[in-house]
Amino acid sequence: MSIALSVLVEEASRYLAVSGMPDYCPNGLQVEGRAEVRQIVSGVTASQALLDAAVEVGADLVLVHHGYFWKSENPCVVGSKQRRLKTLLTHEMSLLAYHLPLDVHPEVGNNVQLARRLGVLVEGPLEPGNPRSVGLVGSLPEPMEPLDFARRVAHVLQREPLLIEAARPIRRLAWCTGAAQGYIEQAIAAGVDAYLTGEVSESTVHSARENGISFLAAGHHATERYGVQALGDYLASRFSIEHRFIDCPNPV
């Protein structure tokens, strides 16, 4: 089975409600390849390693969370950017990328997908009154000591998180996948017991300690593996085409 590229892109963008959502990069089709799609390869970032793996398995389309053409990016097509684009164009592979719309989606979003794997019950947005808040707030079925919760995170993500441990058990949690350590202030305002994200800054440690909450940095890549897989599965099921996720490990 195959589906027209234009139809697949239209459905993905509709499903993720891309229209009207501000972002730091273009969401949707970033590089156009062949007109028909039979196989999707998904991954977190459109790195050269992922593109090479997609070529090897004969993918028609590469679906990622981190694509190209960021607002702060050098626009010149040189170096690794030239090599990546050359790989896509030479092999007529399309690149489809969704950033914030994939973080916030209520079904396939990175934050919801991570919560399901960790057994966290979603209560609502981290930013009250904002239904498209990137971060979420939720609760654990039973209170857990911070170290025990960190062990659960390590087991699920297969990566040891950095833990700044507070004295109190974790009942309510705020989280936002990726590089969202700056949202710790919103987490503190929400009155949660812990905040989980992908990365950490020097100031994050002080904020957690001085406000008495636990903080976990579980990896940018590790926390954002699940949304793109879920979106790829949705599209594959919707159009009866093939999908495979390829993980290119990243320690950050």
UniProtKB/TrEMBL annotation:
Name the keywords, alphabetized: Metal-binding
Which Pfam families does this UniProt record tie to the protein? Answer: DUF34_NIF3
Source species, domain of life: Bacteria
Keyword presence, Metal-binding: yes
Gene3D superfamilies attached to this UniProt entry: NIF3 (NGG1p interacting factor 3)-like
Q: Is Transmembrane helix there in the keyword field?
A: no
Q: Which PANTHER family match?
A: GTP CYCLOHYDROLASE 1 TYPE 2 HOMOLOG, NGG1 INTERACTING FACTOR 3
Q: Kindly give the NCBIfam families that the UniProt entry links to this protein.
A: YbgI_SA1388
Protein's recorded name:
Nif3-like dinuclear metal center hexameric protein
Native source species = Azotobacter bryophylli
